[in-house]
Amino acid sequence: MTQPHSQIIRRVLDTGQAVAQEQGERLIQQSWLRCAGDHGLAPGRNPGIPELDAAQLRERRERVGHYLDVARAGMHQLYPHIAPLGYITMLADSQGATLECLGDTRADSPFATAGLRTGTVWNEAAVGTNGIGTCIAEQRTLTCHRDDHFYAGNLDLSCTAAPLRDPQGRVAAVLDISALSMPGARDSQHLARHLTSLYARLIEDSYFGHHFRDRWLLRLSRSAALVDHHADLMLALDDDGCVVGANTGARRLFDPHAERGVVGHGIGALFRDGRDRVHALRQAESLGRLTTWHDADFHAALTQPRRARAAATRVPIASHRADALHTMAGDDPRMMALTDQARRLAAKPIDLLVQGETGCGKEVLARAIHATSPRANQPFVAINCAALPESLIESELFGYAAGTFTGARRDGMTGRFVQADGGTLFLDEIGDMPLDLQTRLLRVLAEREVLPLGSDTPIALDVRVITATHRDIEARIAAGTFRADLYYRLAGGTLTLPALRERTDLDWLIDRVIVTEARALAAPASITAEARAVLHTHDWPGNIRELRNVLRFALALADEHGITANDLPNSARDTAANAPGTATSSVSPGPADAEPDSSHAPLIARLRRCQWNVTQVARELGVARSTIYRRMARLDIVAPKYRH
Ligand SMILES: Nc1ncnc2c1ncn2[C@@H]1O[C@H](COP(=O)(O)OP(=O)(O)OP(=O)(O)O)[C@@H](O)[C@H]1O
C-alpha cells in the first residue's frame, strides 16, 4: 500500500537529511527540511496561499520594471507550445509573487482555484515546497511534481520553474510552467523542464542585450551558424575592451576562474590574444574565433553600441538601478542623505520607523530597505493597521489556532508576523493602532515570539519590523493614545521623508513616474516644458501619490506628442494662488511679492545668480517655491532648460 504524503515527508524530516540519489528529488527533500527546520511549517497545517492586493501587485510589477515587458514577450512565444499540452505559464518576482499568467484566467477556472493565477505569493517560507518558491530558494531550474509539494492541498500541481537573472547575476524573476493532474512521475516533466530553461535563457539574454544596448556586445557560440541569434555566452564591453556585464552562460564559464567575477576584467584576461582579436572584430565586424585561457574555443561576433538618440524633450528611459534605494530620489540633498542612511541601516538588525506625510513614499522606502537588506530573498509582508477593523487586527497580526472562533478557518490562520518570519513586516499607519494592541505588539517585539489567539504554544520569530505613520506620534504620546515605550522600541532608527513640495528633484520624479506610467498605458513618455512648469507651481498635498495620479490622467489624454498643459487635470493647475481656501495655507506673502511686479529684472538677476535653482531663490526670499514659479509665470520668465 502507498504511504500517505505526510508520512513520506515525515520520514525524510526524521532522518534530518536529503537522502535521495537523483538530483531533482534531492532538491525537493532539501526543501522539505528547510520548510520544517527553517520556516517552522508542518505538512498537516496548511496556512493557504498569501495574496497581493491590486496596489501591491502594481508596485511589484513596477519593481521588476522593463524586465517584465521582455518576459511577457517571451511568455507569449512560449505559451502556444505548451497550451495544447495542458500547461499555463506564469511569471513571478524574486519573492514568489505571480505578476503575469497566461492560460485559463477565468476566476473560477481550476487553475485559478489552485492558486495558479496573478497575485498569489508562492514563497517557500509561507507555502512550503513548490515550483516557484523552491526555485528561488535553490536559485536553479527545478520541477515540483505533485507529491513533491509540502502541503497536501497542492498535490495536484506539477510546476517547473527557472530563475531569470538580471545582468548582475541576481534572480530578478522566475518563469514557471504549471499543469494540473499530470500523470506519471517527475521524469515525465522533462520536456517542461527543457522548455522552461530554454525560454528563461531567451528572456534573460534579450534583457541583457537591451540593458547593454549602448555597449559593445560580444556573442560567443560553439556554432558559427548560431552565434548571431543564439549565442551561448554574451559579454558587454566598454570602449576599452573591459567587461561591464556577462550573461548567465558567461558567468558560469568564467566566474569560477576569475576571482571576483568576470566583470571588471579586460578581455585579454579571458581569451588568448583577446585584445587584438576583439580589436580585429571591431574593425571588420565579421565573425572571428576566440579561445579562452582554458582552451575552450568559440565563434565570436561583435555588435556595435546603439548610442542613445533621444529627442530633447524625451524622457530618458535608462534608469540604472544600483539598488532599490537608488530609485527613490534624484538629486534632492535631503533624500540623498536619507537613502544613504537607509542603506546603512538596511544591513543592521534593527527596527525602523518611517515618518512622513501621506503619499510621500513611506511604503516604497520600507520595501526598498527590505530589498537592500540581507533579508531581500525572504518575505516582505505589509499590513495597514488603519485599514483593518479593530476586531481583526489582532488575528491578522498574530494568527489564531484551529477552532478558536465560530466562522473562522477550520485549520486556524497563520498571522502576518509568522508569514514574515525571516523577512520584514511592514506595519503602516501604526499611529492608528488601538492601545491594547500596542501592548501586545510591544510584548511580541520584546520577546520575539508570537502566541496565536487560542493557542498556548508561542512561535519564535526572526522578523524585522518597519513601521510607518503620517501622524505626529510625539503628540499622540503626549495625549496618551500612543505608548511611549512602544515608540522607543519601534524607532530603533527614525527616517523622515520630506513632503514632495520640499524636494528639489521634482523633475527627476516626473520623469521617473512618466516612464513607468507610460509603459503601462503604451503612451509616449514625454512632457512639454510648459506642462512641466505647471507641475512646478502646484503644492502637492497628496505628495508622490498625487503626482502619479495627475501624470496617469494626463498620459491617458495625451496624444503622440506627449503631455501638454491642457492634458493636466484642473486639480494640478490650481496653484495655491487661485485655489479657493488653500491660498493662505501654502503661500506666505513675503519679500518676493513685495518686489515690484512690473519689472522682472530683479527676479531674473536673482535666478541667474542662483543658476535657476528656484528652491534656492525661494529660500533666500523666504517664500514658498510656488510663489516664485507664479511670479515667473506672471512675468513670462522661462528657465533656460524649458526654452525651445
Ligand atoms: N521614489 C518614487 N518613485 C516613484 N513612485 C513613487 C516613489 N515613492 C512613492 N511613489 C509612489 O507614490 C505612491 C505612494 O507611495 P507610498 O504608498 O509608499 O506612500 P505612503 O507614504 O506609504 O502613503 P500612505 O501614508 O498613504 O500610506 C505609490 O503609488 C508609489 O508607487
TrEMBL record:
Organismal lineage: Bacteria, Pseudomonadati, Pseudomonadota, Gammaproteobacteria, Salinisphaerales
Family annotation (CDD domains): AAA
Source species, domain of life: Bacteria
Example of a GO biological process term: regulation of DNA-templated transcription
UniProt keyword terms in alphabetical order: ATP-binding, DNA-binding, Nucleotide-binding, Transcription, Transcription regulation
Organism: Salinisphaera orenii MK-B5
Residue intervals of the Sigma-54 factor interaction domain: 328-556
GO molecular function list: ATP binding; sequence-specific DNA binding
Protein name, per record: ATPase AAA
One Pfam match: Sigma54_activat
Xref: InterPro entries: AAA+_ATPase, AAA_lid_NorR, GAF, GAF-like_dom_sf, Homeodomain-like_sf, HTH_Fis, P-loop_NTPase, Sigma_54_int
This protein's record includes keyword Nucleotide-binding: yes
Residue numbers spanned by region Disordered: 567-598
